[in-house]
Amino acid sequence: MADDTERIEQQIAQAREDLASTLDQLADRANPQRLADDAKARAVETLQKPAVKYPLIGAGALVAVLAIRKLRGGQR
């Protein structure tokens, strides 16, 4: 009987440790700062890809040219 009680206490202690570990993992995954940092890193990584980077540069240049034309057109 004493062995059963000791075994049950050990199982309870192990379950508590497992639960604490799981809660720590969940807290880390749900950390807003970590989520923001991960999102920022993914965005920067995506923007560094040539298939994204160069079209954005081209679009920015086009917008700049159109803005300059509009400003010059308004001065005449």
Name the features:
DUF3618, rod-shaped, 3 helices, DUF3618 domain-containing protein, mainly alpha, single chain, 76 residues
Compute the number of strand runs. Answer: 0
Q: Tell me the β content.
A: under 5%
Helix content: over 70%
N-to-C SSE string, H for helix and E for strand: HHH
Structural class: mainly alpha
Count, helices: 3
Ends: how far apart?
100 Å
Note the main sheet: none
Uncertain spans: none
What is the general shape? rod-shaped
Rg on CA atoms, Å: 29 Å
Average pLDDT: 92
Task: Reconstruct the topology from this structure.
Blueprint: H1 2-29, H2 32-47, H3 50-75
Please, could you describe this protein's structure?
This is DUF3618 domain-containing protein. It holds the Pfam family DUF3618. It comes from Gordonia defluvii. This protein has 76 residues and is an all-alpha fold. Helices cover 92% and strands 0% of the residues. The radius of gyration is 29 Å and the shape is rod-shaped. The mean pLDDT is 92.
Short overview:
By secondary structure, this protein is an all-alpha fold.
